[in-house]
Amino acid sequence: MSFMLLGILNSQAAGGGAGAYDLLETTTLTSSASSVTFSGLGSYSDYAHLQIRGIARGDRSSNTRGALSFNINGDTGGNYAWHYLRGDGSSVTSNRGVSASRMQYLWEIPAVNATANQFSSATIDFLDFSNTNKNTTMRLLQGIAGADNQVGIASGLWNNTSAVTSIDIIDLFGNLVSGSRFSLYGIKGA
């Protein structure tokens, strides 16, 4: 399911002009890391939106799940709001946060006690990231296949009108493992 979701989204990215997706950069971990950062995003201001597509797994040893959070421009003040909704076909979970130091728990990932070699996939849109006339919002769609079949949606707000110049993806409970991959796309405006 994880790779299928990315394949469907990738098939929608073909073409040029308005609404086109351009691959800007990719980071694939060859060893564990607590975070991944996309920086220098100001150089992509000719795009209307940014999108991160990724697969991830963590090394949290005490659980089957871990979680990723997002910081923008290194801001760790209480300038974020977020919420998520997840379901597995028989149960639903949700949560929210306001005045938070990051957009947290939005992307749930498999950890050490999850099915072997299981990764979670997600697509995250940062809308109007270079517009300095409004706050930055993001939306996320994720899926986990295997024994933990689950899908989720989430959204977040960075309560700041500055242009986004960097995005940190942070493992809240340990490290991202080797093989986790994150690709940054630019989306052309109309």
Structural descriptors:
190 residues, Jelly Rolls, globular, mainly beta, four-stranded antiparallel β-sheet, 5% helix
The chain-level mean pLDDT equals 89
* Secondary structure: number of strands: 12
Number of domains: 1
Sheet/helix structural class = mainly beta
- How would you sum up the global shape? globular
Note the total helix count.
Answer: 1
Beta percentage is over 45%
Order of SSEs:
HEEEEEEEEEEEE
Distance between the termini: 31 Å
CATH architecture: Sandwich
Extract low-pLDDT stretches: 1-15
CATH classification class? Mainly Beta
Q: Main β-sheet: number of strands, strand sense, barrel status?
A: 8 strands, antiparallel
Rounded to an integer in angstroms, the radius of gyration calculated over CA atoms is: 16 Å
Query: Can you tell me the CATH topology?
Result: Jelly Rolls
Proportion of residues in helical segments: under 10%
